[in-house]
Design brief:
Number of strands: 5
Largest sheet: 5 strands, parallel
Radius of gyration: 17 Å
Number of helices: 9
Distance between the termini: 9 Å
Oligomer: single chain
Order of helices and strands: EHEHHHHEEHHHEH
CATH superfamily of the largest domain: P-loop containing nucleotide triphosphate hydrolases
């Protein structure tokens, strides 16, 4: 069974993904795949440098994600161009990893942490959708604590589909504004449901 895990920026997707992993799910982190896809010397890295200039590079030639973020979140066309470069590579890597997991464990529950699950049209490839929710006020507070300005934070929030829209399309919603224990309890309940569904297939 393939589960798409998504939510808004700074809602706690990675925390929830880690909890699913601790319960026994196989977790595929699309952000990690994207970082691998743009390592120095890789084709996507070269295309990004050609498109956005060497000014987005760190001294070690890795891409400075903050600099690139500031460029693309100011310009929807640039954001679309970046996605066109990175997304196909990430989906190809995902297909390979998914196949490897299925060969080892045909009954695996695979949780794919995909920030842009709904925006990138990836929901077609999953059996169930789990959305991690936090209020816009909480998202903003968390982004400010990461060092972003209010303007930068709001631009990044607006670059994604509204969280309420994602909640409407979800099979399960995990509310991540309370304690870790509350979040873990919800994850355990959802995972128990997924195990039941997987065993009945």
């Amino acid at each position: 069974m393939i589960v798409g895990l998504t939510g808004g920026i700074a809602t706690g997707k990675s925390t929830v993904a880690r909890m699913f992993g601790e319960l026994g799910a196989h977790v595929i982190d699309f952000d990690a795949l994207a970082r691998q896809a743009v390592e120095p010397g890789k084709p996507a890295w070269q295309e990004i440098v050609d498109c956005f200039g060497a000014g987005i590079l760190n001294p070690d030639r890795t891409i400075n994600r903050q600099k690139l973020g500031r460029l693309v979140f100011d310009d929807p066309e640039k954001l679309q161009k970046l996605n066109q470069i990175v997304h196909p590579r990430v989906f190809a890597m995902d297909r390979q990893v998914t196949e490897e997991i299925r060969q080892k464990d045909p009954r695996a529950i695979i949780v794919k942490e995909i920030p842009l699950l709904l925006e990138a049209g990836a929901a077609r490839g999953v059996d169930k959708v789990v959305v991690v929710y936090a209020s816009p006020e909480e998202q903003l507070k968390r982004l400010l604590s990461r060092g972003l300005t209010s303007e930068e934070a709001l631009k990044r929030m607006r670059a994604q589909a509204p969280l309420d829209q994602k909640v409407r399309l979800a099979d399960y919603v995990i509310y991540n504004e309370g304690s870790m224990e509350e979040t873990r309890r919800q994850v355990e309940e959802v995972y128990a449901e997924l195990l039941k569904l997987a065993s009945s297939r």
